[in-house]
Amino acid sequence: MTATRTAIVTGAARGIGAAVAERLAKDGMKVAVIDLDEAACQEVVDRIKAAGGEALAVGCDVADEDAVNAAVERVAEQLGAPSVLVNNAGVLRDNLIFKMSAGDWDTVMNVHLRGSFLMTRAAQKFMTQEKFGRIVNLSSTSALGNRGQANYAAAKAGLQGFTKTVAIELGKFGVTANAIAPGFIATDMTAATAERVGMDFEEFKKAAATQIPVARTGTPDDIAAAASFFASEEAGFVSGQVLYVAGGPKD
């Protein structure tokens, strides 16, 4: 790597976001660990620092325009201009559509779609100036449709269209945009889904694995590996793509 890059990872206090933050730090980047609660980010920051990396905990509601702009400016001042952005922050408000409240819809849209838009808009300013940028958005296999997730599925499908458009608009500035669509990944979020449907998490994972060609469920590190590739200098000719990391093919 010709220079030490600064990466921003949202929703990075736990799960996939934490794994991505730690992997990018291992790749030699300085990493801003962003989540709603700044204190919750500190454990990830401490692990990165213990491994010899450089990281910063930043509290930010990604759906809040002023908070996003302030957070990205803070990262630029304290770690350096961000040239890698991983939009991972997400929430679930699952329900069948006849039970889903407008609030449940709006919350999911605001975090996933508005949040990714605001973070991308704030970060691309630095990327276009530097003529280098890597934007990675977290979609999901749910983008293909999933019972009880009309809001989440719509948001994750929307992120794919957003990704392709950003790739078209920012490509001439040396900025790529790609999306990762995870399948079943064992995280606190999927544990919450198991609880919602009344299943033991281990049994839930075993049942899911029977439907996956590689016969196992995924881990946050599986997603971090894909993010590491998209964030690399070598991936400069890969843009506007959606990579399903799901243990098998998806339509």
Brief description of this entry?
The protein has 2 domains: 6-183 and 221-244, NAD(P)-binding Rossmann-like Domain (Rossmann fold, 3-Layer(aba) Sandwich); 184-217, no CATH class.
Description:
- This protein is an alpha/beta fold.
- It has two domains: 202 residues, NAD(P)-binding Rossmann-like Domain (Rossmann fold), CATH 3.40.50; 34 residues, no CATH class.
- It is 47% helix and 16% strand.
- The chain has eight helices and seven strands.
- A seven-stranded parallel β-sheet has the order 3-2-1-4-5-6-7, sandwiched between helices.
- α1 links the parallel β1 and β2.
- α1 packs across α8 and α3 packs parallel to α4.
What is the overall shape?
A: globular
What share of the residues lie within helices? 40-55%
| CATH 4th-level superfamily of the largest domain | NAD(P)-binding Rossmann-like Domain
Strand order of the largest sheet: 3-2-1-4-5-6-7
Number of strands: 7
Number of domains: 2
Please identify, by name, the CATH architecture of the largest domain: 3-Layer(aba) Sandwich
Mean pLDDT metric? 96
CATH class of the largest domain: Alpha Beta
SSE order, as H and E?
EHEHEHEHEHEHHHE
